[in-house]
Design goal:
Cytochrome p450-Terp, domain 2
Length: 282
């Protein structure tokens, strides 16, 4: 039995003569008038961002777009080497690697900060109050054996340049909210608990900034993947011009070393893949 179905959406819809997006005429009101970063924010929240929010959001996208030969980039290049007819497969391979150590740190940090703030009756009134909250949070995480997302970086051991710049932009635009306040406090006080100085990494500060923009914390990894998609397209374009994928493959293949079977699963090199990045890498 055929029944008329109704599927309401505030996103894209089309009829014979027009396309509507977010209540706007796509051709006349959006194309050529709305930037892609602004549109991405608008699509996710169904509210048009203020110019200052767009600037912070687009700064986050720029910060996360590319960070060199990360595992996501290598996976994309090697998949393209293996299946050059599948551009979408190469992109997907890189995006699937967005997890707790790379890219996923953005969502992990935003969700962690959001959880701490949700437990407060009201946010601290001054820097001393934020530092006290950060100390308590760090001590609780350490006692429970949990890492603090957003702390540490495998390259920028003396400070991630993206962190300082994004905090500056957020302050300039009046978007330095409680998530960034708490994240900054964690950066100030963590040596008292951890016994060493670690940088606040760029992926973490991006998560804090996105949360302060009011974006759903459950979607923060999606924005990191949106940014990295642009970077991976760049990686593929460069791979076509100046290929290195085959050299990476041959370097590993030509330098493998047979070892006896290890039923314990221990790494015979003693290597710690996390290094000194308690909260992951970019």
């Amino acid at each position: 039995m055929d029944e008329e179905q109704d599927y309401p959406t505030a996103l894209g819809a089309a009829d014979r003569d027009s396309i509507t997006l977010l209540g706007q005429d796509l051709a006349e009101d959006v194309m050529g008038r709305v930037g892609f970063g602004e549109l991405a924010f608008w699509l996710a929240t169904q509210r048009r961002p203020a110019p200052g929010q767009t600037r912070v959001f687009e700064a986050v996208l720029a910060a996360l777009a590319d960070h060199g030969f990360t595992p996501t980039a290598i996976a994309t290049r090697l998949t393209y080497l293996s299946a050059p007819e599948s551009l979408q497969g190469a992109l997907a391979a890189g995006l699937l690697g967005g997890g707790s150590r790379f890219l996923g740190v953005t969502e992990d940090t935003g969700a962690f900060l959001h959880e701490v703030l949700a437990g407060l009756d009201e946010p601290p009134a001054d820097e001393a109050g934020w530092d006290e909250l950060a100390l308590t949070t760090l001590q609780q995480r350490r006692e429970s054996g949990q890492r603090v997302p957003g702390l540490g970086h495998h390259v920028h051991k003396d400070g991630d340049p993206r962190t300082r710049r994004l905090m500056q932009i957020a302050r300039e635009e009046g978007q330095f909210g409680p998530h960034l306040q708490l994240f900054a406090a964690l950066g100030r006080v963590h040596p008292q608990v951890l016994g060493k100085q670690l940088p606040l990494n760029g992926a973490g500060v991006c998560g804090a900034a996105l949360a302060d923009l009011g974006l759903p914390v459950e979607l923060l990894r999606g924005f990191a993947l949106l940014a990295r998609t642009a970077g991976l397209i760049g990686q593929l374009a460069e791979e076509r011009r100046h290929p290195v994928g085959n050299r990476i493959f041959l370097s590993v293949d030509g330098n493998n070393r047979p070892v006896p079977p290890d039923p314990t699963g221990d790494d015979p090199t003693g290597h710690d893949p996390a290094g000194d990045t308690p909260g992951g890498a970019p």
